[in-house]
Design a protein that fits this description.
With 132 residues, the chain is mainly α. It has five helices and no strands.
Length: 132
Amino acid sequence: MLRRSPTMEVRMKKDKRTEADKNRSRDQYITFRVTEQERDKIDKRMAQTGMKNRRAYLLKMATEGQVVNIELDCVHNMVRLLSNATNNINQIAKRANTTGSIYAADIEEISLRYEELWKQAKQILRELGDLL
């Protein structure tokens, strides 16, 4: 009676797996580890799509999904501009309440600030439009 060693059995299984992989169109492996929270988030998003197969979902997302990376520098710049404009308006309002009049230079300053704000807002909208 011929006895197989565990090593021999593993080698035979490995050979069978390799032979089966030769006949597959998807013969490459990609593996990665996730935390339990990440897996739960993946499962939740998968459920929202109605898909039941995690492999199919991950493959679909990896090959056809979108990853959106939004740089917020332009938004931070707009917030800074808004803050400056607000400060200028407050200063002009105080002066107007004290003197009873508004200077032409103040009006010009407000106009310049709002032009900057609109330029920044248009830039943000262009960049958001490019994402779609």
